[in-house]
Amino acid sequence: MTESESKCPTPTAPPIQLEPLTPPEPSKCPKRSKPLNRLIDTLILILVPLSLAACAWFKVEQTAVISIVVVVLALVPFFTQFEQKKPKPRDIMPSIVLAALAVAGRIIFAPLPNLKPVSAIIIVAGLCFGRQSGFMTGALAALVSNLFFGQGPWTPWQMYGWGCMGYVAGALQEQGVFKHQILVYVYGFIAPIGYGLLLDTYFFIGFVGETTLAAAAVAYSAGLLASLAHAIATVVFLIPLYMPWRKKLHRLKRKYGIE
Fold first, then answer.
1. Distance between CA atoms of 94 and 253, rounded to whole angstroms?
2. 231-254, pLDDT tens digit by residue?
3. Which of 54, 173, 182, 197 is at 20 to 30 A from 190, Cα to Cα?
4. What is d(CA 102, CA 127) in angstroms, rounded to the nearest whole number?
5. What angle do CA 138, 168, 202 make, to 5 degrees?
6. At 7, is the secondary structure helix, strand, or coil?
7. Is residue 219 within a helix (H) or strand (E), and if so which, with residue range?
8. Angstrom distance (rounded) from CA 225 to CA 223
9. Which domains does the chain have, with CATH numbers?
10. What pLDDT does residue 72 have?
């Protein structure tokens, strides 16, 4: 190698120009805000009572069929909203497991009328996992348990009633209503009475021919004792279940990052 060649500088590659990173474009599909979701949920929840009142006021025939259709249409948005979240398996499992426990409890306590832990388990689901999980747990518990007790026009109403029970429990929990344990038991007493009134209203509007005040008094008084027994049983099951299950379920949420 000559002296001139040794003095030649070694060619170097030009520096690589890195382009600044740009954030990914947001999805073109707009996401609904939580207040809007809650407003839509509220409108759906009151759709069934309004339809019942309209059927009674206008003396619409075939109100049983109309009311069932309305209930089914009211259930669909809740299932679709839950599906649109694209939940992971770990997010779905609590609702499925608690619904299965509610079904098992209804079957085991079948010989004892109105003495079942179904409503208590649904309320715990709403308190621990939120309004959507509470609604799903209640609706699934009614649908699956009626595979054993018999499906019929009452099934959508039971799905709606128990679903609302879990949904309202979750909504009140988000607002910080249940700061004291006693308030959970108060809700556990009131919610089954509301459930009973809903089912009694369905029976009265759909199957009682003459919708008068006297007929309504007879229909609602006939179901009052059953609703009271349901309410007392729910509180009786909530007292031993709520606190232990709450601690274990919240520990599972923290451990597995369940939303």
1. 9
2. 999 999 999 999 999 999 988 888
3. 54
4. 15
5. 65
6. coil
7. helix 213-256
8. 6
9. 38-256 (1.10.1760.20)
10. 78
